[in-house]
Amino acid sequence: MSEGRSSGDSPKSWLSRLTLALSGEPQNRQDLAEMIHSAGDRGLLDPDALRIIEATLQVSERQVREIMIPRAQMIAVRADMEPRDFLPLLIESAHSRFPVLDADNADEVIGILFAKDLLKLILEERNERFTIKDFLRPAFFVPESTHLDRLIKEFRAKKNHMAIVVNEYGGIAGVVTLEDALEQIVGEIDDEHDFEEDEDAFIREIAPGEFVIKAFTPIADFNEHFGTRFSNDDFDTIGGIVMSAFERLPERDEKIVIDHWEFTVLAADRRAIRQLKIQKAS
To answer: What is the pLDDT of residues 268-282, one digit of tens each?
Structure first.
């Protein structure tokens, strides 16, 4: 008599195996997280699936203020600007949506401008004066204390991809996108405009005395490698030191000298510096 699997049996799916592993019924969120991590340690979940599940559990505990693009780094259009004034900015940023600020009150967002809506300007001969309000979509506002799970639900319900973040006084605190929220679960979502970074090391020598470093290199690691004495009292990463020196979010290829070191921005997005080149200042 054969001892093989009967025709009605089938290999257990990862979901069946995970259900079996979690059969101890967790009593709270911490128990659930520990059981899921244990399932990963036993090979019931691959590392990517484990990371996504753990990140999903944390979404309800995080707030919009933690992931938003601060107001100082927002790329916005003023309502009194002409296309020749704001189109270069839109093209350079390569974004698809832009907050539009009232001409007389920079703390009031009057709508969202979609880059694709401006394509009709190329095809139409407009004899009348351009009015940006003719192209605006309604703005969606959220408090900076909104939890990310609630934010994602709101994005789905309103079919929106961008929200203006407001503080407790009603002022603009920043902007957040659906992509920003989803990246907290699935990780960084690269697009065709993102700069490809070396994945293997924080610091890489590209020529004698020239180095490419990731901006989120811990200051302690940077100091140890280069024999520097940058303080980590106010910042955790070397990117924080560089941004503080600029007093704004710098653009690609901008340079600055700090304590006899020349820093060149190799990559930056709308939220932070990503990659730097450094060498001793001449």
So the answer is: 876 678 889 999 997
pLDDT class for 253, splitting at 50, 70, 90? confident
Higher pLDDT among residues 24 and 9, named by residue:
24
User: How would DSSP label each residue in 167-217?
Assistant: -TTS-EEEEEEHHHHHHHHH-----TTSPP--SS-SEEEEETTEEEEETT-
Domain ranges of the chain: 28-59, 66-186, 203-280
Name the amino acid, one letter, at 94: A
* Phi-psi label, residue 170: left if phi above 0, alpha if psi -120 to 50, beta otherwise: left
pLDDT of residue 27: 66
Q: How far is CA 235 from CA 29, 247, 248, in A?
A: 31, 14, 15
- DSSP reduced 3-state for 165: strand
CA angle (208, 209, 210) in 5-degree steps: 95
Q: In what order do the strands lie in the sheet with 172-177?
A: 69-70, 172-177, 162-166, 141-143
Average pLDDT over residues 123-138: 76
| Residue range 203-280, CATH number | 3.30.465.10
Which residues neighbour 208 within 8 Å (Cβ) at sequence distance 6 or greater? none
Is the CB of residue 71 less than 8 Å from the CB of residue 173?
yes
User: Would the pLDDT of 9 be above 60?
Assistant: no
Superfamily of domain 66-186: CBS-domain (3.10.580.10)
Amino acid in the structure at residue 102: D
Tokens coding 274? 């990503």
* β-bridge pairing 109-114 and 97-101: antiparallel
Task: Please tell me the distance from the alpha carbon of residue 62 to that of residue 135, in angstroms, as a whole number.
Answer: 34
Tell me the two tokens of residue 202.
């924080």
Q: Quick one: tokens of 66?
A: 């933690």
Angle between helices 47-59 and 178-186 (to 10 degrees): 130
